[in-house]
Amino acid sequence: MKKTGLILLLVILSVFIFTNTAFATEAEEASSFGWISIIPPLLAITLAFITKDVVVSLFLGILSGTLIMNVPGNNIFMALVQSFLDIVDYVLESLSDPWNAGIVLQVITIGGLIGLVTKMGGAKAVAESLSKKAKGPISAQVITWILGILVFFDDYANSLIVGPIMRPVTDKMRVSREKLSFIVDATAAPIAGIALISTWVGYEIGLIKDAYDSIGQSVNAYGVFIDTIPYRFYNILMLLFVLCTAFFLREFGPMLKAENRARRYNKVLADGASPLVADDIEQLEPIEGVKKLNPWNAIIPIGALILFSFLGFYYNGYNEIMAGDDGTLIELIQNSPLSLLAIRETFGASDASVVLFQSALISSIVAMVMGVSQKIFKWTEAI
């Protein structure tokens, strides 16, 4: 602990000294800091490895960034004070952004939905059902991979759904939490990036269209996207890599150590690890008194989340397009509202952060109604 604190102090002091000497002669209105601007992310990543505390590391990374901007024209003490004040402004500004606020609400609400499903016994019922099919580490990892592929429409929803559902299954089969996290994360974004319909694809198509418009070319952006799928080497190779490591159980580096620890000593978590999930969700245990575990208590709420997400993407994107000035696109969607092109365009124009929050909220209400009707919990407990 003392060694970690000493290293942490030395790293921070090094940043302070470096920034003070590097910018002592810079003008106050300097607008570019060059390669110095990579110090904040490097510091955050380095401290995350050293301290094993992501939140503190991110905070210190942000602090170093504001410090770099405040050092020119100030001494270290005044720059440090101003940096703390600026952090508050940046946090408030970030939270006031509709996209960021939507993401925060989405994560909270989907987490609440998973909590309700957990307390109704649905998550445990699904986990027990899947564990019957998972005969060992290989099948447990492959099932996790398959679920990740099925929840293809959004990477955030993918991580929030697949992780909690599969955690007890992989724990039972002695798959380390590190490997579970890798499978979920390395499946969520790659599949969302190449799926024919997803929130990511809509954004990518918009970027493709803007790029061609900037050079005066008119193309079918979706057609270009389809043509690029065979060349999406990261997406394709990462999905295959995850599947191969699951089938052949070939690991290396820190992951090899984690898997050996889980397999030999049944320690899915490393000593001293602090999972960033609530204890009640972590345990996936239903409320006392729930005698019959019903998988439909998970399937219906999560199915509702997926269904309302699809409907929400279409409705939100449709309204956005109708309010725009692209007459050709408006006419096309009005003439063929359920065509693949219309679905793709509406998904691309939708605000995924807001839609997923709304869908999770509705699905949470569905879960609450189910729990109350089965007398598993009261309204006040559910809320």
Shape assignment:
globular
Oligomer: single chain
Radius of gyration: 24 Å
* Domain unit count: 2
Gap between N and C termini: 40 Å
Question: Given the helix and strand composition, which structural class is it?
Answer: mainly alpha
**Biggest sheet, open or closed, and with what strands and sense?**
none
* Number of beta-strand segments: 0
Number of continuous helical runs: 19
In terms of DSSP E residues, the strand content is under 5%
The ordered H/E elements are HHHHHHHHHHHHHHHHHHH
* Average pLDDT taken over every residue: 78
Helix content: over 70%
Explained architecture:
By secondary structure, the chain is mainly alpha-helical. It folds into two domains: 2-96, no CATH class; 100-382, no CATH class. Helix content is 75%, strand content 0%. The chain has 19 helices and no strands. Helix 7 runs antiparallel to helix 12 (233-248).
Features:
383 residues, 2 domains
Briefly, what is this?
By secondary structure, this protein is mostly helical. The protein is built from 19 helices and no strands. The radius of gyration is 24 Å and the shape is globular.
What layout of secondary structure does this protein have?
Blueprint: H1 2-22, H2 39-51, H3 54-70, H4 76-96, H5 98-119, H6 122-133, H7 137-150, H8 155-172, H9 177-194, H10 199-214, H11 221-228, H12 233-248, H13 253-265, H14 279-283, H15 296-322, H16 327-335, H17 340-349, H18 352-373, H19 379-382
Helix pairs in contact: 1-2, 1-3, 2-3, 3-4, 5-8, 5-15, 5-18, 6-8, 6-15, 7-8, 7-9, 7-12, 8-9, 9-10, 9-12, 10-11, 10-17, 15-17, 15-18
